Structure formats: C-alpha cells, structure tokens
C-alpha cells in the first residue's frame, strides 16, 4: 500500500529533533505549519515547521538575531531557561515590530525548584523575561505558546512536580500548550 505522507527530520535547535509526518504533495516554506498532535486546544495548536533556535546565542547578539529572523519570515522562536537568553529573545521580538499573536514562542526548563510554588514561580519568571512585563495571570499580556520540560534530568517525582507546575501555568494562561522535549 502506498503512503500519502513522507517523513521529515527538522532540526528546530542544535539539540532537538522533531519528526513530522507531512502529507504529499506539500510545498514547504518558512510559513508552513503543522498541528501539535496532542494539543488539548481546539482547534489544534498550529506550530510553524521551521523554528529559529537561540542556543548559545550571545546576549549582545541575540536581540538583533531574533529581530532579523522575524523580519525575514520566521515565526517560531525557540529558547530555554538553560540558554540564559529569554530576556534577549523577548527584546528581539519587541524590536521586530511583529504582532505577538503572529509568533510562536517556545521555552523550556530542566529542573524543579525546592517546592511546587517555587517551580511555578520559575516558569512565571521565564514568561516575564520573554514578555518584558507581567504575565496573563497577573493582569498583563505575557505568555508563551509552548512551555516544555527540557529533558529527563530528574527522576519520576521531579518530573511529576514539573508537569504539575506546567499544568498550573496552562490553567492560569501563562502558556497555550505544554509538553516534553528530549525525553
């Protein structure tokens, strides 16, 4: 039986690999999007297939790089707490002049904090850094489109605590979707 799809391996950052099934025929472009398969949202979250990753992007260059990427058509920006450039990503987004609702911003975190409340506050801090202001849960407009657990750096209890913090953040509007990366 002949398949109507083809596998593409798309690198969204230097460390992550995304396997996507794309129906044929399909013209890929920087604006091509795919539905996040397990998204609880209806309609499913649409992720731009090509993302601009900022791993190891120096803080003095990151805002300009992000701004230039967006001005050249990228709509998917990938950062993480570990990269230590979330604020610079947010600055680049604001400098680009692109409406926030046209962008898809992803960030990630590796480890839980001492308590569930501190873990949640760490996630909120990421959103504040990226948005340059208040998050939706505190009357602002800051959010990310996707917040991920970055990897399996902790055991099952740690991952459970991290997931619960993500669920709370999702409930309060700080992120539109949650998930895992590199697991």
The residue fraction in helices comes out at: 25-40%
**Beta-strand residue fraction:** 15-25%
**Main beta sheet, described?**
5 strands, parallel
Counting DSSP E segments of at least 2 residues, the number of strands comes to: 9
Termini Cα gap: 32 Å
Order of helices and strands: EEEEEHEHEHEHE
CATH topology: TIM Barrel
Instruction: Based on Cα principal axes, name the global outline.
Output: globular
Question: What is the C-level CATH assignment?
Answer: Alpha Beta
Task: Give unreliable regions as ranges.
Answer: 1-19
**CATH architecture, please?**
Alpha-Beta Barrel
Which whole number gives the mean pLDDT?
Answer: 85
Number of domains: 1
Q: How do the strands of the widest beta sheet line up side by side?
A: 5-6-7-8-9
Q: What is the fourth-level CATH superfamily?
A: NADP-dependent oxidoreductase domain
